[in-house]
Amino acid sequence: MDFTGKHVVVTGAGKGIGRATAVMLARRGATVTALSRSEADLANLAEEIGCRTFAVDLADPEATRAAIRAALPADLLVNNAGTTELDSFLDLPVENMDLLYAVNTRSPMIVAQEYARSIVERGVKGALVNVSSVSAFVGFRDHAAYCASKAGLDGLMRVMAVELGPMGIRVNAVNPTVTLTPMAIKAWSDEKKAASMLSRIPVGRFAEPDDIAEVILFLLSDAAAMVHGVSLPVDGGYMIAP
């Protein structure tokens, strides 16, 4: 897949799937603009691929809107930024629920709104991918806020697909299994918990960030011209395992 001449905005590009996606896009010809909270992570990424960067706390809606407006115009968008906190349902604080909703559901909405408005104003076609999770489909212990925020993101994606498709903007989601990122290590560091999850993945391993990035690039590309409104599990068969 060749992205020469394309400008792609990637949120949450400092680490994990977002960083792998930004690097892969740049290596395949794209100009990348990276958004992330950590200035140090962004500086490291810029040194590697020469991208433009914006440090922003995506839990702040005004700052998010300002950052994406400054990053535009762009041809393609990857809504990757996400966070998690681990709480049992009965112990889930409102503050954690609000934080995960703000970063995982609301910020992709704001970023996609500004991107889509820019695409329509320019009279061109576009494509965006939301990075969701198998947690949108399955309830995991201690992940109440995370599961709810990712299910909300998928619901939002479906409405975006219905409304933005006629405007020439394709919208899809990828739903990874456990992917070996810093956030996943935080959530799955317990060996017994990780072993139980791994035992249900028929391919026998957790995902690497590049595994997910390859699928994101496919969905952004013209090769996926008729793929629209899909929540695509990238899970090594987890969803079909008994």
Give a structural overview.
The chain has one domain (about 5-180, about 210-230): NAD(P)-binding Rossmann-like Domain (Rossmann fold), CATH 3.40.50. It is built from eight helices and seven strands. It has helices spanning about 15-25, 40-50, 60-70, 95-120, 145-165, 180-185, 190-200, 210-220; strands spanning about 5-10, 30-35, 50-55, 75-80, 125-130, 170-175, 230-235.
Which properties best describe this structure?
single chain; 242 residues; alpha/beta; Rossmann fold; seven-stranded parallel sheet; 7 strands; SDR_fam; NAD(P)-dependent dehydrogenase (Short-subunit alcohol dehydrogenase family); NAD(P)-bd_dom_sf; NADP; carbonyl reductase (NADPH) activity
Task: Note the topology.
Elements: E1 7-11, H1 16-27, E2 31-36, H2 39-49, E3 52-55, H3 61-71, E4 76-79, H4 94-122, E5 126-131, H5 144-164, E6 169-176, H6 182-187, H7 191-198, H8 209-220, E7 231-234
Parallel strand pairs: 1-2, 1-4, 2-3, 4-5, 5-6, 6-7
GO molecular function: carbonyl reductase (NADPH) activity; L-xylulose reductase (NADPH) activity
Domain Ketoreductase: 6-177
Family: Belongs to the short-chain dehydrogenases/reductases (SDR) family.
CATH overall fold name: Rossmann fold
What is the topology, as strand order, of the major beta sheet? 3-2-1-4-5-6-7
CATH level 1 name: Alpha Beta
Tell me the major beta sheet: 7 strands, parallel
Radius of gyration: 17 Å
Decide which structural class fits the backbone: alpha/beta
CATH architecture: 3-Layer(aba) Sandwich
Tally of helical runs = 8
Mean of pLDDT: 95
Order of helices and strands: EHEHEHEHEHEHHHE
Number of domains: 1
Work out the number of β strands: 7
Helical percentage = 40-55%
Distance between the termini: 35 Å
- Catalogue the unreliable spans: none
**Beta-strand residue fraction:** 15-25%
CATH superfamily: NAD(P)-binding Rossmann-like Domain
C-alpha geometry = globular
